[in-house]
Design a protein that fits this description.
Elements: E1 5-6, H1 19-42, H2 50-100, H3 115-125, E2 132-138, E3 141-145, H4 156-163, E4 169-175, E5 178-189, E6 192-202, H5 204-239, H6 241-252, H7 269-314, H8 320-349, E7 359-362, H9 363-374, E8 381-388, E9 391-394, H10 396-412, E10 419-427, E11 430-437, H11 469-479, E12 483-488, E13 494-500, E14 510-513, H12 526-531, E15 533-534
Parallel strand pairs: 8-10
Antiparallel strand pairs: 1-5, 2-3, 2-6, 4-5, 5-6, 7-9, 8-14, 10-11, 11-13, 12-13, 14-15
Helix pairs in contact: 2-5, 7-8, 9-10, 10-11
Length: 538
C-alpha cells in the first residue's frame, strides 16, 4: 500500500486588491487639485507677501512630504502584513506535511491513509493565532473547523471547489468580515484526494490596526505641522524684520529727510543688506547735501549781483557818461558772478571720483611756477622762501588752483609793495606748500571758521570775494588726503599751508633762498635763483 503524502503546493497564485490605497490616493489627488484650483482662482485678486509665499512654499513641501511618508508607510505595512500572512500559511503547510509523513502518537504507527487521524492530531497540537482559522475537509465533505469570525464552511460552492483540489491552492476571497487569505493543502493517496486542509487568515483586524495607526500618525503630523507653521511664521517675521524696516525706511525717505537708518544687528546676510542700504543712504544724503548746498550757495551769492545789475539797468538813462559808468558796474558784477559760479562748480565737483587726477609732480618746478603765476596777481614784494626737491603724486592743476587762491587771498589783504612769500619743504607727514603774507592777520576766534564756505573775516577784512577761495583750498587738500593749516597773529600777517602726503624719493633737502625777487611781474630767473641758493643753516 502506497504511503499517503501531502501534495506539494504548486501553482499558487494570488492577487491582492489595494482598493483602500487607491481610494485614499484618489481622495488626496482630488483635494490637491481643489486646493490648486482655489489658489489659482485667488491669485488675480490677492498677491501674497514674500513672507507668506516663502512660508506657504515650505508648508506645502512639508505637507507633501508628510502625506507621501504616510502613504509609503501604509503601503510598506500592508505589504509586510501580506508577507507575514504568507509566511504563517506556509509554516502551517510544512507542519501538516511533516505530520502526515510521521507516526500517530496514539498508536505509534505511521498515519498512512488515515486522514482523519492526521486532522485530529494536527488540530489537537496546534492552536490558530489571531485571525487564523483551520478547516478540514474529509472526502470532499466538511469535517472540522476552528472558531472563526465567519464560517467559511457554510459556502457550499467554496467547500465543493476545495474538495476537488488535487494540488495546493493559495488565494484570497472577499467576505463580510473583510478579505481572507487562504492556503488549501490536499492530502492524496494513490493519486486520489482523501482530504483537504485549509488554513485561512482573516486580515481585516490587522489591516484595521494599520489604518488606525496611520490615522493617528496623520493627526499627530497635522498637529505638529500646524505648530511648526505657527512658530515658523513668528520666526520668519523676526528674521524678515530688517527687510520690513528697509521697506519702511525707503518709503519714508524723501529729498528733504535722508537721516533715517536701519538698525543693524548680527552679521548675517540680512544684516549685511541693511548695512549696505545704510551706506547707500549715506552716499545719497551726502550727494543731496552737496546739491542743496550748491543751490543755496548759488542763490545766496548770485542774488546780490543780480539785484545790483537789475537796479542799474532800470535806472539807465541816455547820458553817455552815465551809460558808460553803468556798463562798467554791470561788467564788474558779471565778472564777480562768473567767478562765484566757477568756485561753486569746483566745490560741487569735489565729490566726484575724477575731481583729482594724480600724476608725477616735481616739487622744485611746481614751487617756482607757483611763484611766477602768483606775481601776476598784484604788485607785491614776492619772495621764494624755499623749495623742496623731489616728486609727489598729485594733481598739479588742482594744487596750483589752491595755491593761487591762497596767493590771491594774501594779495587782497595786503597793501601794494607788501612782502608775500611762497615756498615748499618736506616735513614728517608729507610736503608742505605755503603762502606767507605780512597783512593784518586773522583773529584767533575766526581761524576755526575761516575755511567754511562764504566765511569772511571781520568787517575790516571784508573783500569783494564770495568767501569760497579758502573752502576750495581745503577741499582740494582733503581730496589729496591732506589738510590745510593756518598760523596767524593779529597785526603779524598769516601763513596758510597745504600739507600733502608723500615721502622724498631721495635725500633731497629743502633749499632756503636768500635772494630778493623784486616786486615786478617779470618771469622768475630760475637759474639765477639756484645760483644764489644755500642749504639750511648756512
Amino acid at each position: 500500500m502506497t504511503a499517503m503524502t501531502a501534495a506539494t503546493t504548486t501553482g499558487m497564485t494570488t492577487t491582492m486588491t489595494m482598493g483602500a490605497t487607491t481610494t485614499m490616493r484618489a481622495v488626496m489627488t482630488m483635494g490637491a487639485t481643489t486646493m490648486m484650483g482655489a489658489v489659482m482662482t485667488d491669485r488675480p485678486r490677492f498677491r501674497p507677501s514674500f513672507r507668506l509665499r516663502v512660508l506657504g512654499s515650505v508648508a506645502a513641501l512639508l505637507v507633501v512630504a508628510a502625506v507621501g511618508g504616510l502613504l509609503l508607510q501604509r503601503t510598506f505595512l500592508l505589504r509586510g502584513l501580506e508577507r507575514e500572512v504568507a509566511a504563517a500559511l506556509e509554516q502551517e503547510r510544512e507542519e501538516l506535511q511533516t505530520l502526515a509523513g510521521g507516526h500517530n502518537p496514539l498508536t505509534g504507527e505511521r498515519f498512512g491513509d488515515d486522514v482523519q487521524a492526521i486532522f485530529d492530531t494536527f488540530l489537537r497540537r496546534n492552536l490558530p493565532e489571531e485571525g487564523e482559522v483551520y478547516i478540514a475537509l474529509l472526502d470532499g465533505e466538511f469535517y472540522r473547523t476552528t472558531p472563526a469570525p465567519l464560517r467559511l464552511d457554510t459556502d457550499p460552492d467554496l467547500v465543493a471547489r476545495w474538495g476537488l483540489l488535487t494540488a495546493g491552492e493559495r488565494g484570497e476571497i472577499g467576505t463580510e468580515e473583510g478579505p481572507v487569505q487562504y492556503l488549501a493543502v490536499p492530502l492524496l493517496y494513490d493519486g486520489v484526494t482523501r482530504g483537504v486542509f485549509v488554513i485561512a487568515n482573516f486580515t481585516e483586524g490587522e489591516r484595521e490596526e494599520i489604518e488606525s495607526a496611520v490615522r493617528i500618525e496623520a493627526a499627530v503630523s497635522a498637529f505638529v505641522l500646524l505648530m511648526v507653521t505657527l512658530v515658523a511664521w513668528f520666526l520668519s517675521g523676526r528674521l524678515l524684520r530688517p527687510i520690513q524696516d528697509l521697506t519702511e525706511t525707503a518709503e519714508a525717505i524723501s529729498d528733504s529727510d535722508l537721516t533715517r537708518r536701519i538698525p543693524v544687528e548680527g552679521d548675517d546676510e540680512i544684516s549685511r543688506l541693511a548695512q549696505t542700504f545704510n551706506e547707500m543712504l549715506d552716499r545719497l544724503e551726502e550727494s543731496f547735501t552737496v546739491q542743496r548746498r550748491f543751490v543755496d550757495d548759488a542763490g545766496h551769492e548770485l542774488r546780490t549781483p543780480i539785484t545790483i545789475i537789475r537796479g542799474h539797468l532800470d535806472l539807465l538813462g541816455d547820458d553817455p557818461d552815465e551809460r558808460k559808468e553803468t556798463l562798467a558796474i554791470v561788467d564788474d558784477e558779471l565778472s564777480r558772478m562768473a567767478r562765484i559760479v566757477d568756485d561753486l562748480l569746483v566745490l560741487a565737483k569735489a565729490e566726484q571720483p575724477d575731481f583729482i587726477r594724480r600724476e608725477v609732480v616735481e616739487l622744485t618746478d611746481l614751487t617756482t611756477e607757483l611763484l611766477a603765476k602768483s606775481r601776476a596777481l598784484g604788485l607785491r614784494d614776492w619772495r621764494l622762501d624755499a623749495y623742496a626737491e623731489g616728486i609727489i603724486h598729485a594733481d598739479p592743476h588742482r594744487v596750483t588752483q589752491a595755491m593761487l587762491n591762497l596767493a590771491r587771498n594774501a594779495v587782497e589783504h595786503t597793501p601794494p609793495g607788501a612782502e608775500i612769500g611762497v615756498g615748499s619743504s618736506w616735513s614728517d607727514d608729507g610736503v608742505r606748500l605755503w603762502v606767507r603774507d605780512t597783512g593784518i592777520g586773522i583773529d584767533p576766534t575766526e581761524q576755526d571758521r575761516i575755511f567754511d564756505r562764504f566765511a569772511r573775516g571781520r568787517a575790516g577784512r571784508r573783500t569783494e570775494g564770495a568767501g569760497l577761495g579758502l573752502a576750495i583750498v581745503r577741499t582740494i587738500a582733503m581730496a589729496h588726503s591732506g589738510r590745510v593749516e593756518l598760523e596767524s597773529e593779529p597785526g603779524k600777517g598769516a601763513t596758510f599751508s597745504m600739507i600733502l602726503p608723500g615721502t622724498p624719493h631721495s635725500e633731497a633737502p629743502t633749499v632756503i633762498l636768500k635772494t630778493d625777487l623784486g616786486t615786478q611781474s617779470d618771469p622768475v630767473d630760475q637759474d639765477a635763483t639756484k645760483r644764489t641758493a644755500t642749504w639750511p643753516g648756512s
